[in-house]
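Async update (no meeting this week)

Hi team, since we skipped the sync, here's where things stand on the single-chain job. The sequence we agreed to prioritize is pasted below, unchanged from the tracker. I ran it this morning and attached the output directly underneath so nobody has to dig for it. Comments welcome in thread, and please keep replies under the output.
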Amino acid sequence: MNTSVEELQQQTAIVSRVRQPSATTAPVSPAATKTRPQTLLAIPVGACIALAIHFLVPKQEPVAPTHYYPVLLFVMLGLGLLGAALYPFLEGLRKWMRHMCPMLGVATMTAGIWELATSCLGLLPLPYFPGPEGVFGSMVSDYKLLFDSTWHSLILLTSGYFIGVIIALITGVTIGWFPHARYWGMPLLKIVGPIPATAWIPLAMVIAPSALLSAVGLISLAVWFPVTMLTASGISSTRASYLDVARTLGARPLYLVFRVAIPAAMPNIFIGLFMGLGTSFLTLVVAENVGVKSGLGWYVSWAQGWAEYGKVYGALIIMAAFFSTIMTVLFQVRDRVLVWQKGVIKW
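Output:
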């Protein structure tokens, strides 16, 4: 009997030693993993390739030397080398470089390939496909008009977007919460909503007292449909158990709407906000070509009319940065509001 007890104790001790983690076999966290050298050197290598193409490959197309493009490449090269030098010392920089260096390196190399295909080899004809030096030169020489157009586009976009979101939230909550409003509102959404906002341009120009107000109305209409539809869907899909518990605790109807239904519908609402933001970008560019005498959409049309394609591509670059920044801001707002979804839902 004593022998069996001693054997059992020895087996238990062996198992406990096996299960106990040792200091030498501690799991390695993702932050401790080493970054590959090609990730750190992606930006400098891409900048060196682009600089080599710019200075060593002969040009087939006449390009006015502005020196803005090579200066930008030298700045990218210097920042890439500085980031690689500071990489071991700054945790925040390490996280940013692991994520962004490959993309920035490919973008810098793409600029070199762009110059090789246009200015060096002449595979794409001028003036429709200028090289990067011509595009950046046009952006710098016309920076005042570009800044003014970007500012007007920002005002027009934010005005139409926020007006459309406010109206959409009101109509979406009303349709989603009240059965009678849903009965009459859903057919209207199904009939009017799918019509593109740009199809209402002739009617908007007749009804609106000015081209600016018609553009704001078109952007608001483009935002209104997706936000309204997804808000109504989220409100109507609120779990009945949440509402029953709140009613049991004495919640009033307003409390049920603003403290139970709307928070439960926030994921759907943000999906509608993102969809409305995408449609507002498209409507903004189209609306600025109809009567509005400022904005990035107007600038692209004006530059294309004068065959200034360097300015056209420069405006497209500004548009990409402009729209991407606004989208990033909305992502940050979503992460703050829906912080409880972090690690649960990725989209």
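Quick observations from my side:
The CA atoms of residues 61 and 139 lie 20 Å apart.
Confidence is low (pLDDT under 50) at residues 1-9, 11-33.
Reply here if anything looks off.
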